[in-house]
Design a protein that fits this description.
seven-stranded parallel β-sheet
Length: about 250
């Protein structure tokens, strides 16, 4: 009986938070996983967290805003595995929560470069690999955000980047279709990560008040991404929202 070859997944921003949790979830689901991120020490912590499954994990320190580094990342994936089945575009940052008029151009560019340009560069290389491999095709999952639907106060760069990710998701879905490449987006609200820890102590609301918001256990996010990743290529979840049920998204602020 011919052994089943594990599918290969690449996760950006895999050194912490959602990226680390999803990478470990994909390993548990049987994938060989490549971890990408700027900090080698953070990637190493994710690698160690894989425990006995570490043999199916590889780390490649990568700045997703650097086109040369991104090409080298995908060359490494192709060189070791010969293919890529799933890309999770997860790397992202936010800017300080200051009034829009006080935001510096450098702060704006940093968020756009990482959240949007980084996802574009990785998507571009993923398409080049996925359309040429045999069997052809693959799946790209973009980490959007609740901000792709509605902004928080003082979040212009992050919100703009996540609205743009929705456009990238739709364009990738269309342009990848002829190569059997599916693209989808998961919009996550208040997942319990270090980045969202401030929700538990109170964050600004649209009406000017400060309010504590509920958090969502990361397990639900991991399960959602693994579900999307495991779909056959003839099926796709175009957009999925996974959020804390009582967070103040729907309704008047």
């Amino acid at each position: 009986m011919t052994p089943v070859t594990p599918k290969v997944a690449l996760v950006t921003g895999a050194g912490s938070g959602i990226g680390r949790a999803v990478a470990l979830g994909l390993v548990a689901a049987g994938y060989d996983v490549v971890l990408a991120g700027r900090r080698a020490d953070a990637l190493d912590a994710t690698y160690k967290a894989a425990g006995a499954a570490r043999g199916r994990v590889r780390s490649v320190a990568t700045d997703v805003t650097d086109s040369t580094a991104v090409v080298a990342l995908f060359d490494a994936v192709q060189g070791e595995y010969g293919r890529l089945d799933v890309l999770f575009n997860n790397a992202g940052v936010s800017a300080p929560g200051v009034p829009l008029e006080d935001l510096s151009v450098d702060q704006w560019r940093t968020v756009i470069d990482i959240n949007l340009t980084g996802a574009f560069l990785c998507t571009q290389q993923a398409i080049r690999l996925m359309k040429s491999q045999s069997p052809r095709g693959g799946r790209i999952i973009n980490n959007g955000s609740i901000s792709a639907h509605a902004p928080r106060p003082n979040s212009a760069p992050y919100t703009a980047s996540k609205h743009a990710i929705t456009g990238l998701t739709k364009s990738t879905s269309l342009d990848g279709r002829k190569y059997d490449i599916a693209c989808s987006q998961i919009d996550i609200g208040n997942a319990a990560t270090e980045m969202a820890a401030k929700m538990a102590t109170g964050v600004p609301q649209a009406n000017g008040t400060i309010a504590v918001e509920p958090l969502l256990d990361l397990t639900h996010v991991v399960n959602a991404v693994v579900y999307m990743a495991n779909l056959p290529l003839e099926a796709n979840v175009q957009f999925m929202t996974v959020m804390a049920t009582k967070m103040p998204l729907v309704g008047r602020g």
